[in-house]
Sequence to fold (288 residues):
Amino acid sequence: MDLPYFLGCPSWNEPAWRGSLYPPDLPASEFLEGYCRIFNSVEGNTTLYAWPSEQTVERWAARMPDGFRFCAKLPREISQAPDLRETGELVETFRRLMGPLDGRVTPFWLQLPAAFGPGRIGELVGLIEQLDRPLAIEVRHPAFFARGEEERALNRLLLERGVERICMDTRALFSCRSLEPAVLHAQSKKPWLPVRPTAFSDAPQLRFVGHPELIANDRFLLPWLDKVAGWIESGKSPHVYLHTPDNRLAPDLALRFHTQLRERLPGLPALALPAPRDEAQLSLLGCD
Fold:
């Protein structure tokens, strides 16, 4: 798939996508190939919570096309460590583990907890230098969103080092007033912080966590459609990852985003719809 940007979901291994993204009878062992036929990137949530085996990474490498992007998250033993300066051996081990994927791991992601505040910015320098690979960082401490000196110091460091600051947008999720367990769970886990549409490198990163009703996301996606289109027109290669509360509709939201982006950039190719859909489903995806 020849796209000027990278589009994907939080993972590829969701059984609930059978019958929508995947054929109803597709074995789980073939999910990755099916995913790569439609999307050209994935947010590597899996590596945050568990270290894959060497054999697993080799299987991924055999199934992912060369131009695919796997944004491998540094494991939480690293990102949630009391001091990042003490994780050097873990960082090196993880970098070697991802070796078979080569350039498909671009960038690595460091998802920092809310406890990582301005007083710890110095810890990032050593990790950035040791990793020596494209890196994007997500921060959650409120001080990094207060437009004060702490945020400016973070931005200066990332800009000087060519490290991307991940744009997290949860406004659509928190606009939802629902008692559904999936929504409540997502709202309890995701941060509700101001949006920072930064581009500190040629590969800006967007994580959009959406409303469970696809149409309800449109007003929140609108500014991102303009922003992503502008990034593409300026020669950047943005990454866009779409979530929904339980991610059952994450692929549908990603397809809806791409369909609406094509209205701004008519030269973009259409994505192949993965499975037969009725007119109501096509309308929800924005494929009228």
